[in-house]
């Protein structure tokens, strides 16, 4: 153990009545929920970037955190990794996630970046071996360095495309080597600041070509994880091409990749796109592209990505309800893409923020399972659409306007509305919480 | 002429210096812009619903307008039509648009609705013949009547689907008969209020089936106009399936209809979806589905559809710039889906609001044409992407990650960012205004 | 009993485990919470307008509800009142609230309006006598009729000011006669649509004069209830003068009325103004003007007043925590300014929506009380500011820049930041839920 | 001259027809508008922070700009000042503005900060003497350093209050010494992240005490500039106490400082608070607290402070119309609180962004003056309120509810609404553009 978390105990489940801040009140890893352990349902992951690499800055202020591993050497990168694994173990999460730039010092060029990455991947490998920790996903940071300011795949400069492609290769290699279960693409700079200097047609084609190469490379190296796109509407870029789930789906269809690529949905990104988290989850489920989630909360009244730890259990319940309806995660999981408030300086804060988030998810999962097992919601929904299961209902969908019109005229079809019962169903949901 | 507009003169072009409120300052129908008359570029249409049918209510107050044609008889419907055509002629617009419910009294059932509609279509036909007015598009109102409260095509009750299909047929027939150039589908109730009572998968399938029937019926009757979907993210419904252009595109691809259906883009709807109008136009152009526009402005700071007459010329210029870059309208046009403020009670207000909106569009069009003809913006954009036209650039798009990575390593590709020059380009745009 | 709610039982408390939809799970009227009954803490009221008078329309659709009392006669107004009191009794709420326009038919002029109001007030008086129901507050609807389209007190036409003043008098008389505990002013049309036609200085002065007259009249007639202003930022009006609590406070200070008038805070209005509900409550408490609340929820992602029944208990807990910290209600209470979704057509929906809302409030109240009684949050807050209780801390506030600067220099004051512990406190709150 | 702007010419007025990017098309400093030169109307200032000190970072990416003066030594601070004054002269702006942290290296403590500041103030003094440049305002940066993370005046730690007070003193001294015309307070951290750890009552009292000390110190040292508060609703802080103009006004009234302090209104901050810029200007004018403006534009669809250079002339016209109606600036001016997009790397971009912004303001000013001189808008507004100038209208405001009610009854006052003519007035505004 490093010194950073000294004095902080291993977090274990003590149940709802505990007074102990450093204990789970809802997350009980081996407890069965719908015949699967909570651990296997939730598949929690910590995000390296927010917890280990973020200095606490915001647009109007600099670093607030003082971490012993901040700095740009391989030695500090290893100290950071040591602390990271301490944290993962204290929290008993089975997974973690990283960008290349989170884990290795920035090099002077591609070759040095890759050497640094490979060294730290080696180090991770040993630690994963020793601890049983697993990699939920890896990804390339193609947005922080100034070379990416005008995009990575969608850059007007083909050399940036090339640099990005090489970097993605190195990160896919690293993810593959570490047995990662998914590889994620978040296009934080894939979009535009102003249409005035943008050729949207070219940029779309570039993005499509890059995605095809990623899929091809996956198959070439035998990586059997899932390729995931993470939608976000804007920020940092004024408009990002992967706006939301529906937009990503259209893009995948356009390039014929809807069978190869899924989505990693973040609550905060959903909200910034004007959707509820459960909307994005339900839509991805219906489109067959639900992959994984980035769990956080976003202040509905702050117009940027606040990436807060989740704490509203009723919201979690609605989210996990959609995930359970999709059959749960396969390669995906629940990654805390959440950061401490920049005033939360203490090591305890970092642990307890995760504890609270994990408990909120666990409580939500249990409520969602109860909703499904009870079946009242499903029954109400099925009853509402029952007409479509009749012969007449089924026939309608393959009919034509003229025939239907004839029917309407002949039978004087003049339907009366029926109550949608929204409030009753909302009351029902509250019973499980 | 009816009495309603008594004393209001025919609006003609008098140029920017005129002091006459009742004159165009920018819209000069026969003036050539990029070798086409302004009339043929802009293809202005008045919207029957806002101008003739809207009583001035809002969620906290009732009717403010007192129009002699308000009421539910065929006689009043004809008086409404008479006044409408007076207005179209005073404004010298070439087109108008309508929903069935705007133009005919509501009947007790489908048959009566259709009889009423057919009678008024007959009446329209005579008036169009007499005046040369044309129909830009027709559409069915499948959202105001209580039977549609839970959706039309996407209703849980198949009878509502049937009633909707029949109504669409009658409206397509009407549009076809009147030589309409497009047929529009706006799904104001196609979406959900709460996921709790909604089966999104079924509803999507229902919407797809209905759209397929519409396309089939178009071909069956030989209607050679364009089928248009009008995206809107929400309002009245909490979530609408046709959220924005990208969402509609994904939907069309899913049902294989992207070659059959285009979009009718409204500025206000774009804004409510978090996009600029020009974004939606540019995206539709790149996807090959740009059809027509609903012109209005939306208060950026009111979170609902304010449907105001457009008045900000710089915004119009950016919009028409994207339309001109797409080659201009074919069957589409510029429909004022804009309504008077409910305090603007006088007949003069109705005329002058259109005059101001038409002038704003005309001024925007002229600025957009100047931008294109000058070519400085295009040149700057092309220069920015010039690297992609080189052999190396072109080769990149059909390469693969491993080969590119090798290149990056070998040539130590380490690109430096170049200025995006946004402010210079914004200054440039201001020169044409 | 009227027929409307036939078959719906009296709602009683059955506890969290009940399966009965028609029972309270948390609201137990006589249960003591912090030594006061829940009934006296919460002081629930039903809103006549949404539940009895609203037809279910929205900006894109008309009436969906079909109520036997809809219409414009005194007889129907009495049927409406009968049904209202049935509902109040089924729900066992102690209070109700109304606008004049909710309860009486619209007359042809002021005199007829007032006659109608007086007749129904008489009728209410008998029913209140018989049932023990009380009036939480009365108010005048100065926004629905077209005469108010440009404002009531702030209208450019002094005759509208006069009509409004007379109407307020009649509503204050009615409220006084019925023993109302507050009188509310909501300025839905007091604001502007466009600055171009608005004299903000005059309108402010008019609003101040009217408020002064209201306060004077209260004293004249010996009404000992509280005068309340209800802030809202916009909708229906583009900008409303009573934007939020802080704005109302500045206005009261300007006219020297901060000791005479308090605020009625609505969750939905707080959200539309960019604030959390608890912010507005805490601010009003600190400014000494917290009066009463309008309880609902607003969809954070719909930009208009959605007025939904509350259902998120964690949000309720934070709200009642601020109310309890203010010492609880005196003349104020918890009015459900919430309306059914327009698809919720059935009488059961109306009852159950209130049941769910009352339970959400009750659960929130209990959690808030537990938070306060436990004292951990208060202790953490006090510890955080403890430095200000030291002699040095106290002295600082009455010092001056030059003296303080001397101290900073001499003692080399160079403070280090301390953790704000936000996530720990959020976890703590979740313990009480 | 330093090398940075080498090759960039002095910007002079060449008129609307010029093809020269490096020339003013509208801003003609000595041209008279309403009998005052444009220079004296607009009183342009450059903001040191954005133009000289900002590295181009955003929440997802680091520095993009590479400026020769970046670094933390006094020598570099002087190079920065040299470049700054080069820029001011190239642009021919009469004023500049700065925070202490923009102009001096960060020291280890208050004493070193102040020594550094004094040295640079000395250097500024010489340069101002040599060039005629003036200081529009100075201010203290009490938000970037981690010590201010929980507030300056409103910090839970009295030592931070003390440090802040000392720093304000040093900045007021600097501003006074340089003949600054105003002193600004922006409370970027004066607010809260979560109510859970916040004592709003204490924090308000602390803020009031600090403001009183600032006013006292102003009088003590004989500074005859204006003290200005700059409202902003949020960002970086979740809620900031100086939310908007109305909120600041209530705060000033509470502490009796409404005669001593005015507001510095920023377009972007107005928008983030849900207001139009012109609303905030008009309100401040009516309340007698309009001081100065921070000119920029904010993307209406990005929920954070985008601080872009203004370019929409119609918006500028409405803003300067309100400023002219207030009698124009006295000590205030037009400060470009605007930053380059982070992709605009070149020295030319920095100059041209200002040129475009100055031209947009100048064009707006000229249009606003034309509107006022023509008088049609004023006439329409006066006509609308004319009833209030009658004897009866005047009497109404000092009457009482009972007397007015008697009048309404006796005269059967039943006012009819009149058109508000919004679209006509909007058309009218477009004539002057």
Automatic annotation (TrEMBL), chains A, B, C, D:
Gene3D superfamilies: Divalent-metal-dependent TIM barrel enzymes (3.20.20.150)
Protein's UniProt name: Xylose isomerase
Substrates-to-products reaction catalysed: alpha-D-xylose = alpha-D-xylulofuranose
InterPro entries: Xyl_isomerase-like_sf, Xyl_isomerase-like_TIM-brl, Xylose_isom_bac, Xylose_isomerase
Active site: 99, 102
Domain Xylose isomerase-like TIM barrel: 114-276
Family named by the database record: Belongs to the xylose isomerase family.
GO molecular function: magnesium ion binding; xylose isomerase activity
Keyword terms of this UniProt record: Carbohydrate metabolism, Cytoplasm, Isomerase, Magnesium, Metal-binding, Xylose metabolism
Upper taxonomic lineage: Bacteria, Pseudomonadati, Pseudomonadota, Alphaproteobacteria, Rhodobacterales
Metal-binding is among the record's keywords: yes
Primary enzyme class: isomerase
Subunit and interaction comment: Homotetramer.
Cofactor(s) this protein requires: Mg(2+)
Gene Ontology CC terms, in alphabetical order: cytoplasm
Cofactor-binding details, from the entry: Binds 2 magnesium ions per subunit.
Any single Pfam family the record assigns to this protein: AP_endonuc_2
Species assigned in the record: Sulfitobacter sediminilitoris
Main location (coarse class): cytoplasm
GO biological process: D-xylose metabolic process
EC number(s) per entry: 5.3.1.5
Subcellular location: Cytoplasm
Binding site for Mg(2+) 2: 266, 269, 305, 307
Annotated residues for binding of Mg(2+) 1: 230, 266, 294, 337
């Amino acid at each position: 153990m490093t010194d950073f978390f000294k004095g902080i105990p291993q977090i274990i489940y003590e149940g709802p009545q505990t007074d102990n801040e450093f204990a789970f009140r809802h997350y009980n890893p081996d407890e069965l929920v719908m015949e699967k352990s909570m651990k296997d349902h939730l598949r929690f992951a910590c995000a390296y970037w927010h917890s280990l690499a973020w200095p606490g800055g915001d647009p109007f202020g600099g670093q607030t955190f003082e971490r012993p591993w901040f700095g740009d050497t391989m030695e500090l990168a290893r100290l950071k990794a040591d602390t990271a694994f301490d944290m993962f173990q204290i929290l008993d999460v089975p997974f973690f996630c990283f960008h290349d730039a989170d884990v290795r010092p920035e090099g002077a060029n591609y070759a040095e970046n890759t050497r640094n990455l490979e060294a730290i991947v080696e180090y991770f490998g040993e630690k994963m071996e020793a601890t049983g920790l697993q990699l939920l996903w890896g990804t390339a940071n193609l947005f922080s360095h100034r070379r990416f300011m005008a995009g990575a795949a969608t850059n007007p400069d083909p050399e940036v495309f090339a640099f990005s492609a090489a970097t993605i290769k190195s990160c896919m290699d690293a993810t593959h080597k570490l047995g990662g279960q998914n590889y994620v693409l978040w296009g934080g700079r894939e979009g535009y600041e102003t249409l005035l200097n943008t050729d949207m047609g070219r940029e779309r084609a570039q993005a499509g070509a890059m995605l095809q190469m990623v899929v091809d490379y996956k198959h070439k190296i035998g990586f059997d994880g899932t390729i995931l796109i993470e939608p976000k509407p804007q920020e940092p870029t004024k408009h990002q091409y992967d706006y939301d789930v529906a937009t990503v789906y259209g893009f995948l269809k356009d390039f014929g990749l809807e069978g190869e690529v899924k989505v990693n949905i973040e609550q905060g990104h959903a909200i910034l796109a004007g959707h509820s988290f459960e909307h994005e989850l339900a839509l991805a489920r219906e489109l067959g592209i639900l992959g994984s989630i980035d769990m956080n909360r976003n202040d509905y009244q702050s117009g940027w990505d606040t990436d807060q730890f989740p704490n509203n259990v009723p919201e979690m319940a609605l989210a996990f309800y959609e995930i359970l309806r999709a059959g749960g995660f396969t390669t995906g999981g629940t990654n805390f893409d959440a950061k401490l408030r920049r005033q939360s300086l203490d090591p305890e804060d970092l642990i307890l923020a995760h504890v609270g988030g994990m408990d909120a998810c666990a409580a939500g999962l249990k409520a969602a399972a109860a909703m499904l097992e009870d079946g009242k919601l499903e029954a109400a929904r099925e009853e509402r659409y029952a007409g479509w299961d009749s012969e007449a209902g089924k026939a309608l969908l393959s009919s034509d306007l003229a025939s239907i019109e004839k029917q309407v005229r002949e039978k004087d079809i003049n339907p009366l509305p029926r109550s949608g019962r929204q409030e009753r169903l909302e009351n029902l949901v509250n019973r499980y919480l």
